[in-house]
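Give me structure tokens for this 329-residue protein.
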Amino acid sequence: MNTQTINKMMMALPLGGVDAARLVMEFVEGLGARAEGLGRVELLALLRRVMREGIAAVQAAERTECFERVAWASVEARAARRPTTTRDLRYYVRKMLKVEGVAQLPLRAMTTAQCRRILDVAFGHSAHSYRKGRAILHSIFAYGFRRELCDVNPVARIEAPPVEEKPIEPLSNDEVERLRETVQVRRFRDMRFSLSLLLYSGVRPAEVERLTAADVCWEERQVIIRPQKSKTGGGRVVPLRLLPGMQQNDCRVPRNWQNRWLELRRAAGFTHWQPDVCRHTFASYHAAHFRNLPELQLEMGHRDLTLLRSRYMTPASKKEARLFWGLGR
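Here you go.
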């Protein structure tokens, strides 16, 4: 390439020969020891490589989408999840987008400080909402990272508020008996199967509501909690422990289950009800009587014993446990 051609090429750019030379020197100085001692051919090859990779990095850095678009795309990517999960995701995303100036921020340029502001404004009123909002915001950036719309997840640097577990006392045997007696009343007999699962198998209320006849293995006296119907997305099998006198035809969940469960509790005299108290009752009396934590862990569907020991196991006497399991009635 002769000097005349080079001059024409330089004239097509808003740069002079001095500018070009200065850029080359900056490249070489930036490479430091990597460029020392190289001949003309090797140095040119190295500089071309640096320029190619630098161009690719600049193009990638400029490829992004606004936060609003990525947030909704991440929700759509999880559309196959349970309706309640999808509803929660949409609710939390809408709360984030209501924070002034957030919707149109380029995802790649968002900082930890901006993410912390989103969480403080949208969910600062509640530690529970803040933890859940943080998890969802983290998942939005994770989605963007997988699609090369951002390079880091700034939410990872934000600490979640610690979970403060409040002790939940198990139901007394008198309270359990009130439920057992009420469910034998004719208008509540369709809830006997549900009460059996809640009290004597530790199944969560939402999981009971989702069960169908296909989930009951009568011959093996088991109930299958399938992954798509469980709270955590993990399946498990629990023993079928039924109230006295129940038959296979009784193993069904009534329609309008939430209202039926509320009516049963009120009819049994409960004006205040602690969520998950049946599950806590089951765990406490199971541990006190059977003394088999690995078995209890499997029935509860926990990955390990940590949550079981810290949250679910309220100490109970052996006598109370025997009464609960019907051994001293």
